[in-house]
Write a structure and sequence with these properties.
Number of strands: 17
CATH topology of the largest domain: Quinone Oxidoreductase, Chain A, domain 1
Number of domains: 2
CATH architecture of the largest domain: Alpha-Beta Complex
Distance between the termini: 15 Å
Order of helices and strands: EEEHEEEHEEEHEHEHEHEHEHEHEHE
CATH superfamily of the largest domain: Medium-chain alcohol dehydrogenases, catalytic domain
Structural class: alpha/beta
Largest sheet: 7 strands, mixed
Helix content: 25-40%
CATH class of the largest domain: Alpha Beta
Strand content: 25-35%
Number of helices: 10
Length: 342
């Protein structure tokens, strides 16, 4: 089989590998779609010298979706031929967090597919069978790939914020995660303010139903949000960028008794707890991806509520054009980019 490796310095290699076989408790999944995610840039953009031994780099891709091609001994549950979306974390399976579907919080150790072990940018993937979750028939492989990390992460954050049609929701960053938050906010009936300096991303947010858009390179986003909310601030806010200044703005533009959520990874932030949090009675959340339960729930929600997730997917590429896919995604002007197998 062939698989994609991010070797650093914005270079991608497609390598040949032996066809894998599932061991006890494992499933062999034939890939049908595998999404590109902003967290891939940590390996894609890093200097080669920081990536370590090139021969030991894992196959990339942590948004894998496919069809079960074979099962190892002792597997209970999934069947050969089943369409599945893969929860890309593996833990010990026995601790309290693994038992509630959060192996990424495993108290023993956890593996992240595409980073610390081989991921989904390959023709086949071997994974613990219980991490293969069934997909609704009405959900396309490309949509499921979006849900497998970025869109699922946004769903979990919007749910944690308890967004409803009574709310104004300010979403900072309109990359694949942020624009998914915009999409889900719109689905709840909230008035969504989409914030991003990239015109193409603001245009996509507007197409997906954003109430207002704000370009922070042209105006102060905190002042803009307050102006749009009669001076009060947004009921709920979410940062999908991980940028320290933007995190500060996410907290600052929330109203009294408002809610704010940090989703974007990296960087740091210095807040003023008294005026920004304590005196505003602000509830501040952190939200890291999702559980197996929330992943399956998001898939069904998209189908049942007829969420137009296909509009989020702006580009698809075959595995052989992975380098072109990453080069385009690196422009920060796309929606979701997905590798597909016909």
């Amino acid at each position: 089989m062939k698989g994609v490796v991010l070797v650093g310095d914005r270079q991608v290699e497609i390598r040949d590998y032996p066809d894998p076989k599932p061991g006890p408790g494992q499933a062999l999944v034939a890939m049908k779609a595998s999404g590109l995610c902003g967290s891939d840039f940590s390996g894609y953009r890093a200097p080669k010298a920081q990536r370590g031994d090139p021969a030991k780099l894992p196959i990339a891709g942590h948004e894998p979706v496919g069809v079960i091609a074979a099962l190892g001994p002792g597997v209970k549950g999934p069947k050969v031929g089943a369409r599945c979306i893969i929860h890309h974390y593996e833990g010990c399976g026995d601790c309290k967090f693994c038992r509630i579907g959060y192996p990424q919080l495993c108290v023993v150790s956890h593996t992240v597919r595409g980073f610390s072990a081989d991921g989904g940018h390959a023709d086949y993937m071997v994974i613990d069978a219980h991490m293969c979750l069934p997909m609704p028939d009405a959900l396309s492989f490309e949509e499921a790939a979006a849900i497998a990390c970025g869109t699922g992460t946004a769903y979990a954050a919007v749910k944690k914020l308890d967004v409803s049609g009574r709310d104004v929701l300010a979403v900072f960053g309109q990359g694949p995660v942020g624009v998914s938050a915009t999409l889900f906010g719109v689905a709840t009936g909230a008035a969504v303010i989409a914030i991003d300096p990239v015109p193409e991303r603001l245009e996509l947010a507007k197409k997906l139903g954003a109430w207002k858009t704000v370009d922070p390179s042209k105006q102060d986003p905190v002042a803009a949000v307050r102006e749009l909310t009669h001076g009060e601030g947004a009921d709920a806010t979410v940062d999908c960028t991980g940028i320290n200044k933007v995190r500060w703005q996410t907290v600052d533009c929330a109203r009294v008794f408002g809610r704010a959520c940090f989703v974007g990874e990296g960087s740091d932030v210095t807040l003023q707890p008294s005026p920004q949090i304590i005196h505003k009675h602000l509830t501040l959340y952190g939200s890291w991806t999702f559980s197996t339960v929330l992943l399956a729930e998001c898939c069904q929600y998209v189908v049942d509520r007829k969420i137009p997730l296909k509009q989020l997917i702006t580009h698809t590429f075959p595995l052989s054009q992975a380098a072109e896919a990453y080069k385009l995604f690196d422009t920060n002007k796309t929606g979701k980019v997905v590798l597909v197998w016909k």
